[in-house]
Amino acid sequence: MRQARGRGKLRYACVVWLWIVGVGSLGWAGEFRLESLAVRGGFSGISPLEEEQKYYFRQADLVLTARLPWERDLGTDWVLGTKLLTSGGVLNAAQETNGIFTLVPLDVLIGRKDGLLSFDMGIGGALLTDHKYGVQNFGGAFQFVWTFGVTSRFLGPLGLGYHFQHYSDATLYGSHSRGGDFHLFELIYWFKTGR
């Protein structure tokens, strides 16, 4: 019963995520370009932002990044820019694996124009197909996402990255819910359309 309910939630979350990405791209067609695709994996850690998590979480996902048109050169080698991040994957803890989908519509970056080093920070939202993992309750399906990280494109179109990602409902569902903090490591492929 629980497994069938989980599959229904996963299908619903996939449809919502595809709708958000599809409708969003119609309004911005031609104004942004796909930048990279990353395979990402990581784990929860000691939380500097929230109370301690009840379980050790693992996350794995695919991340698609698009560069937004708002950017400014900082000298000859550096740029201040913006990008959009979207991801889909799984979150595992307490012998449960469920879907997680994120959309970070505005991620601000400072980086080298050649991509050798880039720092970014952004805020957005996430949808969880199930918000309860054993005794840990995220509160509800929607979570706010805050992320910051560093990436490096050092081998042609390939590179690595690290992101700290924080999920929280900001007490939308009450004061008894608990978010999560994750350390995520990335293997990144940059498309030719990227800078």
Automatic annotation (TrEMBL):
Keywords: Membrane, Transmembrane, Transmembrane helix
Keyword Membrane in annotation: yes
Membrane spanning residue stretches: 12-30
The protein's name: Acyloxyacyl hydrolase
The species this protein was found in: Nitrospira japonica
Phylogenetic lineage: Bacteria, Pseudomonadati, Nitrospirota, Nitrospiria, Nitrospirales
